[in-house]
Design brief:
Length: about 425
């Protein structure tokens, strides 16, 4: 590696990502772990006793602790046999049905003679909870009498379930103002717009870590599910609103946006119920530059990838390790600096236009996933002894992998001494 001593790996990374370290504080936490053991709630006879709320992975400063602690004390949510709660683990449809069944007592609104879902046998651990969630109007199935109990439930699906089951409706033209509450309002599916508006109007929505980033199409975590259920109980007057001096309160949409964004609200408390007396958001300047923000294509991230060279003579045209990043600038545009680490590293600095996400179906299971396309242009810098700078064209897709990670696939074409083309495949940590 003849140029290694002239251009160290540390210098490349600093050049690529130094801007982010100066403008954005990135806190790396443990990734969401796969749910390899069944939560205690799967076995009704082996739940945590009331008051067992000191989960080893939910510290006193954890953002969702007030939500989790209160619901655990009421046995609405439970932990795992090893004493953890796994707050970052995703929630599937069966688990959410079980949580709903413990949180709410509602009269059936559908015929009780429904024979059940084909993929939920009577012996299934959550069969009765799923049946109850269906009969009380919280959850529905899919065509062919299927429920997909092991499928992750997205944020928007959870909000639809809660607003339907609690008979919440939007006030006035609230649905027309969603873009002033959420930077990613365009992600909300048409069928769910009124439900999200109703949930917003009722202060059900909790967005972490950015109160204005809904992430409607991402699977919710156990911590997020606890927060939504807690706020639904606040709406019913069954629990007190989270105290305003606690960190958790700043993530409740509508209750705190007057101090955390340009949205103005006036909240009142009557008989323990948090209500919003007036929801009159002012138009946010979503096109102003806010370095490191989320765009309509998703969260900003930093990560690693592999580069597959297609043509040319630089490191971009070879198989190499790559550092990638996305740093949101406005709602529509991002800076995506990256560095292809080879004998003579190539630094890529494009500005991209981020499109709204699209839902796609897998060819075999028929389940949907989300992709966020982008295209852009910028400069490419070949750091060989006779440094070369050329134009750069780029394009690709981001694919959210839960609330913490984003997969990326893209193509970069740099016009240096030759036309160098590389395909990059990687994953980034969201911040």
């Amino acid at each position: 590696m003849r140029s290694f001593f002239r251009w160290s790996l540390g210098n490349v990374v600093l050049l690529t990502l130094g801007i982010a370290s100066g403008a954005t504080s990135i806190v790396i936490s443990a990734p969401a772990s796969a749910q390899t053991t069944a939560p205690i709630m799967t076995s009704p006879s082996s739940q945590f006793p009331s008051g067992a709320t000191n989960f080893s992975d939910v510290g006193v400063d954890y953002w969702a602790r007030p939500f989790i602690q209160t619901l655990a004390e009421r046995n609405i949510i439970t932990g795992f046999p090893n004493g953890t709660f796994q707050p970052n683990a995703s929630v599937d449809r069966a688990e959410f049905a079980a949580m709903i069944g413990k949180a709410f007592s509602r009269n059936p609104v559908r015929q009780s003679n429904f024979s059940g879902f084909k993929d939920v046998p009577p012996s299934y651990w959550a069969a009765s909870a799923i049946q109850e969630a269906y009969q009380t109007g919280f959850m529905t199935g899919y065509p062919g009498d299927l429920f997909f109990p092991n499928q992750g439930i997205t944020k928007v699906q959870a909000l639809v379930a809660l607003t339907n089951g609690l008979n919440l409706t939007a006030n006035g033209n609230a649905s027309n103002n969603l873009s002033t509450y959420y930077l990613d309002a365009s992600f909300i599916p048409n069928y769910a717009v009124n439900n999200v508006a109703a949930a917003t109007d009722a202060n059900l929505v909790v967005n972490y870590p950015n109160v204005r980033q809904l992430n409607p199409l991402l699977p919710i975590t156990r911590a997020e599910a606890a927060a939504l259920l807690y706020q639904a109980l606040v709406r019913q007057g069954r629990v007190q609103p989270v105290a305003s001096n606690l960190t958790a309160a700043q993530y409740v949409v509508g209750a705190t946006t007057a101090t955390t964004s340009s949205t103005q609200t006036s909240s009142t408390q009557t008989n323990g119920t948090q209500t919003t007396s007036q929801l009159q958001p002012t138009e946010a300047n979503t096109n102003s530059i806010d370095f490191g923000r989320a765009t309509r294509g998703g969260r900003s991230y930093i990560g690693v990838a592999g580069n597959i060279g297609l043509t040319g003579s630089s490191a971009l045209s070879e198989g190499n390790f790559t550092v990638i990043s996305k740093l949101g600038l406005t709602r529509n545009f991002s800076l995506r600096p990256s560095a292809v680490i080879g004998d003579d590293p190539v630094v890529l600095v494009p500005i991209t236009f981020d499109f709204s996400p699209k839902s796609e179906k897998t060819p075999f299971s028929g389940q949907t996933f989300t992709i966020s396309p982008y295209v852009g242009a910028g400069i490419a810098i070949d750091t060989s002894h006779d440094t070369d700078v050329g134009a750069l064209l780029t394009g690709g897709v981001d694919v959210p992998l839960g609330s913490r990670f984003t997969a990326n696939a893209g193509v970069n074409a740099a016009f240096l001494r030759d036309t160098d083309v590389g395909l990059v495949l990687g994953v980034g940590y969201n911040f």
